[in-house]
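Q&A log
Question type: sequence-to-structure
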Amino acid sequence: MKKEWFFDKFCGMQIVAYAEDGKIVEVGAENALPSLAIGNIYKGRVANVVAGMQAAFISCGLEKNCYLPLDEGAAVFSVYDGRQVEVPRLSLKEGDEVLVQIVKLPRGNKGAKVTCDLSIVGKNLIYLPRTDFLGISRKLTDPAMRENLLKEAEKLRAAGEGFIVRTAAAEATKRHLKTESEYLRRMYRAAVEQAVSAPVGTAVYREYSLPVKVMRDSLGGVGKIYVGDRELYEKVLALVRMRSDFSEKNVILHRGARTMLTEYGLAEQIYALADPHVGLPGGGDLVIDRTEAMTVIDVNTGKYTGESDLESTVYETNLLAAKEIARQVRLRNIGGIVAVDFIDMAEEEHRQAVEQALTEALSEDRAKCRVLPMSELCVTLFTRKRTANEVTSVMLKPCPHCTRQGYVYSDIFMAMRIRAEIAERFAAGYNAVIVELNRGVMEEILRNRYLTAETEGAWRGKRVYMIPHRTYHEEQFTVRGDNAPILTLPNTAQLLY
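Response status: OK
Response body:
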């Protein structure tokens, strides 16, 4: 199986895609500039304590106050094998200053969820400066290896602190573990020292950017890395040189006129993630609907008619759906509670088989998943650990035309699609490109300078004209190339930057 990573930076964001035999398995996207991320540590101030909720709300300089459970203790580490620890309930009052760490990003009307049980993540270890806990990844199953790694981790920690041994530690030497533990400890101390004089709302520690996290955690078995941006290529190359298990010769800078994602057949696969409808082999389909509390997935037979009786047709469709659902939640990075409405099946044996198929498909996900038994209505609930924003949060925004109940493509997603179309016209030999689009989208592209890097680099010496239309829907646009020496354009046409 051919396994490849693709890194690119454009329109003010970084995107990472992992593909197996040309089919995308994982996608991540984040703002290219420092932004809110799981793992960031902030100096906050207690805004208020709600005794009835056993929670405090912390002002961290973000748009909404953060939610801090007062009785959670070390529950965030219970997903690892290790002895459980009793952590005294937090005693806070309004005005107290505290260091808190983001564990869940803001969603909808809810602010970020934070914890005072801080952790600094490395490749092989997770350092817990304030938690007396020693744990190990459940993916490490060899008893002798687990015992040896836990003994080494025990030697590295001081009183009152802890470590969690990650899966990657299976390949690490004692020296690597000791060096990493000291590095993580220094990072924490630097954050504490900065917090002493920093104002409330300061991020005293930021989690690594998306490319760095991928390079740290996820390169096992990968053959090639393709990078579509020169600056990002240099960063990835520097990170690769720090590893002994990956050759820098396998890091390839894309130099073509077409966008990298288009060149390797990934663009359309990524665009499809913004569509709530997902086709299944044979004609069935899924409908993925985000709500404030959970994600709901509906399974339909669609055009699939099967080859025998109705029960067999439904059963076969549900089996196909179970595998595709596991792929889609991983692709879209859907977290939290997911409710799946499978097509009704009369036979208990079939219901159990579909539930088992879903459980097995989700077991391949790196994020922790837990599947509950299927109900008599053929509805299954499962949870998936939320590790970052859903990919669709970058691609979609609330629709301004239906009281924000639905979603339309975001301005940055429109810029991404238009960028690819412009690059296609230049690759075809045109020297000028005319884009006709919604006026509001055009204003956002110009205001945020989403395409500045291209106009100052690969498109230097070429012309891109944008023509706004008040009647165009936000998602409507056309792109055409032209080599005429003199272009006839309306007065509203504007040269891109």
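Response note: The chain has a mean pLDDT of 88.
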